[in-house]
Design a protein that fits this description.
The complex is a heterodimer of chains A (512) and B (308).
Chain A: H1 2-9, H2 11-22, E1 26-27, E2 31-36, H3 40-51, E3 57-60, H4 69-72, H5 104-117, E4 124-125, E5 130-136, E6 141-146, E7 150-159, E8 181-184, E9 198-202, H6 208-218, E10 221-225, E11 232-233, H7 242-250, H8 252-273, H9 278-294, H10 298-304, E12 316-317, H11 321-325, E13 330-333, E14 337-340, E15 344-347, E16 352-354, E17 357-360, E18 375-376, H12 383-386, E19 405-407, H13 420-440, E20 443-448, H14 450-464, H15 492-500, E21 507-511
Parallel strand pairs in A: 1-7, 2-3, 2-7, 3-4, 5-18, 7-19, 8-17, 9-10, 9-17, 10-13, 11-12
Antiparallel strand pairs in A: 5-6, 6-7, 14-15, 15-16, 20-21
Helix pairs in contact in A: 3-13, 7-8, 8-9, 13-15
Chain B: H1 6-15, H2 37-65, H3 69-95, H4 109-121, H5 127-152, H6 156-184, H7 188-199, H8 202-224, H9 229-243, H10 247-251, H11 253-266, H12 271-285
The chains are: A alpha/beta (512), B mainly alpha (308).
Chain lengths: 512, 308
């Protein structure tokens, strides 16, 4: 087999990696599946594996609590942009959602309830931050080393650490010089009292537009720094009527029907968001109408009008962001930022805006080309090196040279128009099929073939070239060179279809 | 002067930023303004500050229309830098006791008309038009007026501020002329046709109607301050010299138009130009301010305070 040959060639590096693993003092007995991260993806994978009768699972979680992005993003106003009935697992629907778009606390409760309901706690090892993940070709095992010096091994590994999990302060000159309080949106300081304070918010993305309406109620003066205005759409958010909860409880099929309806409605949005079509114009008109209705001042409206095609960057939904910006204690600054100083932010118009506290809603480290920790595949090859010229995978989930490794939200799996959880479920079911294959055929390695990955990616990149994401704006979807390793260029239905089958012709099967 | 590498220019602009707090506005020297100078200087500074602000708004319009990312970012910076100049000039006025409380100085009626025009139509103007008019405005009004100011005022803080302002302006002009040359590329014929079509646009005619009197009005102000109007004209000729230094620059039809306009303006004997324009200046003086709509909110962002 091709991989076996290359394994021999890389023998030296492999034994070096093995030697490294051997010096680690604490080792556990190998499990069947090792999952990195106890957020939606990690827990969802564990549930589906369990349901398929695979119980020998270990979930490594770097924090002391489950929930991933919903544990970390608990800033005031944090909520999901997708209706809760669609932003939840189809295999564990929740009739109790209090609103159409639930807040982060309620979503976190839902995640916690799954842990209890599916008895997942026994699989989770908390406070185990993975620092290295390496494949052992000889035994067909993945070894995860954690910062506590423990090594966990398994026949298959699932990377479910989340694509947006590492909060990052921006690289603005002088950020270390600033003496006031600094808060990142994804690591909120709940002890800080904003009342009467002069507060700056850097960024006007998805987190910022949820934080600003809340902060403006408390802060003495709120100054918002915007680089690029986003498309903001109305948010059809309302409280769930009691009759609906009762109906969903008594007749779950009604909730599934609503879910299906929401799914199809979001699918239709792909026509506006992903490709440039008459629907795109319509969506832009809706966005401009929303702005015009909520902002009467011509200049402010001009500052808030996006100068790129809708869909090119993430579309935001809010009913209270524009009104918040117009509160008497709020000011929008669109001058470019020069640097941070001891007391605040200097902008190009020559003014130093001074603050007691600056909130950075500036996003995350997106691993377009790297990985959050070293991932060593067959023969010790490094994933970050393989991905140096842009991340790529086969069907977003497997990478050639990294057998038995499954990625959730891997390269080109990002949704722009539909619930991330819809995509996630397709990935999870694929993982279950993969693990079942490894077990049933007693494989040492289920290794996707290079050529299959190449063919898949050529097709993806060809399709991406025609999308709005690649239409010229700068976004975190793209690398510095403009390579799109983030988004899936199609309907969620197309994605689900490609994930429905595990085509073994595209894999090399190496038996134990 | 060779064409500028715009990417390098953007890096240069980013690395040479300054803030109002870099200047000690309370340093000695404010008393060097003579009593005789004071009232005229006050009117002059108010106009100058508004011209900077008007220039800022024009750059904002250009940023929206810029054909490349680099130019868009450059224009966004220039927009903010012109605002910085206006803020710094306000800070000077504050230093010289020319501002009452936090009040903005009142713009003269011609500036008020230009503000109105910019607010309503500048975003719809093709970058060709703005790309030529703005360098002209910068040289004729901004550059020239700053020079006069330094010839007349001895306050060292004023010189310190204008040293920084002039450095910024030289970069704005460098980019301005490079863009004019870029616009000169391609089929001249097509440009002429496009331009003729634009000239028919009533919005542009309105713009011209506000711009020409503004130039004549500023000439009157300069003369009122006891400065030689010849110097203003020398500066305007600089536009013709630099803008027309290359074949590409000369091929830009807008350059040709603005060049002829500035020639007419400089020639006091050209009654064909000056009689109607001076009449417009006079006429605009009679426009009741109440008839003008409220000033747009971008005007309210001016401040003399180095910190906010």
């Amino acid at each position: 087999m091709t991989n076996a040959t290359s394994n021999r060639k890389r023998g030296k590096r492999a034994s070096a990696a093995k030697a490294e693993a051997q010096v680690t003092p604490i080792k556990s007995k190998p499990s069947t599946v090792l999952i990195v991260g106890a957020g939606f993806a990690g827990l969802g994978t564990a549930i589906r594996l369990k349901q398929a009768g695979i119980n020998n699972i270990v979930i490594l979680e770097r924090a002391g609590e489950v929930g991933g992005t919903w544990r970390d993003n608990n800033y005031p106003g944090a909520a999901c942009d997708i209706p809760s009935n669609l932003y939840s697992f189809s295999f564990d629907q929740n009739p109790e959602w209090s609103r159409s778009f639930s807040g982060s606390a309620e979503i976190l409760d839902y995640i916690r309830s799954m842990v209890e309901k599916f008895d997942l706690a026994r699989y989770i090892r908390f406070n185990q931050n993975v620092t290295d993940l390496a494949f052992d070709d000889d035994y067909g095992l993945w070894h995860a080393t954690t910062d506590r010096g423990e090594v966990f091994s398994a026949r298959a590994a699932v990377m479910a650490q989340g694509p947006l999990s590492n909060a990052r302060f921006p690289d603005i000159e002088g950020i270390e010089e600033y003496q006031g309080h600094k808060i990142h949106s994804a690591a909120w300081d709940h002890d800080y009292d904003f009342r009467g304070k002069k507060v700056g918010v850097v960024g006007t993305g998805a987190s910022a537009i949820q934080i600003i309406p809340e902060l403006v109620k408390e802060a003495g003066k709120l100054t918002v720094f915007q680089r690029t205005p986003a498309w903001v759409m109305p948010r059809p958010d309302f409280e769930t009527p009691n009759w609906q909860k009762v109906l969903f409880r008594k007749l779950p099929v009604s909730q599934s029907a609503l879910r299906k309806g929401l799914y199809l409605a979001h699918e239709s949005m792909a026509l506006a968001v992903i490709w440039n079509s008459p629907m795109t114009r319509l969506a832009e008109r809706l966005g401009r109408g929303h702005l015009k209705r909520q902002v009467k001042d011509r200049w402010l409206r001009r500052q808030l009008t996006p100068n790129y095609r809708i869909g090119c960057k993430r579309i935001l939904v809010s009913n209270d962001y524009y009104p918040a910006l117009q509160q008497p204690n709020c000011k929008l600054i669109t001058w470019p930022i020069v640097r941070l100083s001891r007391n605040g932010i200097r902008t190009v118009e020559g003014i130093e805006h001074q603050f007691d506290c600056i909130v950075f809603a500036t996003g995350f480290d997106v691993s377009n080309s790297g990985t959050p920790f070293p991932v060593r595949g067959s023969g010790g090859r490094l994933l970050s090196e393989d991905w140096q010229r842009g991340a790529q995978a086969y069907k977003s989930i497997n990478v050639a040279g990294y057998p038995n490794l499954f990625l959730t939200f891997g390269p080109n799996s990002g949704p722009g128009h539909n619930s991330a959880l819809v995509y996630m479920e397709s990935q999870i079911d694929y993982i279950v099929k993969g693990v079942q294959t490894i077990l049933e055929k007693n494989l040492k390695a289920l290794a996707v073939r290079d050529r299959a990955q190449q063919t898949y990616n050529d097709d993806i990149q060809r399709r991406l070239a025609k999308t709005n994401w690649n239409s010229g704006c700068k976004s975190w979807y793209l690398t510095e060179d403009g390579y799109n390793a983030t988004m899936f260029p199609g309907f969620a239905t197309q994605y689900a279809r490609q994930m429905a089958e595990l085509d073994l012709r595209d894999y090399a099967l190496i038996t134990a | 002067m060779a064409k500028i590498d715009l990417d390098k220019m953007l890096a240069k602009v980013k690395s040479t930023q300054w803030a109002l707090s870099d200047i000690d506005w309370d340093a000695p020297g404010a008393d060097l303004i003579t009593e005789e100078q004071w009232p005229k200087l006050k009117a002059f500074m108010a106009d100058l500050m508004w011209i900077e602000h008007v220039g800022a708004r024009a750059f904002a319009a250009m940023a929206k229309k810029a054909p490349t990312d680099t130019l868009r970012e450059l224009y966004s910076y220039f927009h903010a830098e012109e605002q910085r100049h206006a803020n710094a000039e306000m800070a000077l006025m504050k230093r010289w006791g020319m501002l009452e409380g936090d009040e903005l100085p009142e713009p003269n009626i011609n500036l008020r008309l230009v503000i109105e025009w910019l607010d309503r139509y500048s975003d719809e103007m093709p970058v060709y038009v703005l790309g030529t008019v703005v360098p002209m405005l910068e040289i004729a009004l901004d550059g020239a007026l700053c020079k006069f100011l330094l010839d007349t005022v001895d306050d060292p803080v004023c010189h310190q501020a204008f040293e920084k302002i002039n450095d910024d302006e030289s970069r704005h002009l460098g980019v301005g002329f490079t863009v004019m040359e870029m616009q000169g590329h391609g089929a001249t014929y097509i440009k002429m046709v496009q331009m003729a079509a634009r000239l028919m646009d009533p919005r542009l005619i309105l713009g011209i109607a506000s711009y020409f009197p503004l130039l004549n009005k500023m000439r009157d102000n300069v003369v009122a301050m006891g400065l030689s109007e010849e110097k203003l004209y020398e500066c305007m000729q600089k536009f013709e010299k630099i803008g027309g230094r290359t074949e590409d620059g000369r091929r830009n039809p807008w350059f040709q138009i603005i060049k002829f306009q500035s020639r007419w303006m400089v020639d006091r004997n050209n009654r064909f130009y000056h009689t109607p324009v001076d009449a417009l200046v006079k006429a605009s003086g009679y426009i009741p301010r109440k008839l003008l709509p409220a000033v747009p909110s971008w005007v309210k962002e001016l401040t003399y305070k180095p910190t906010a």
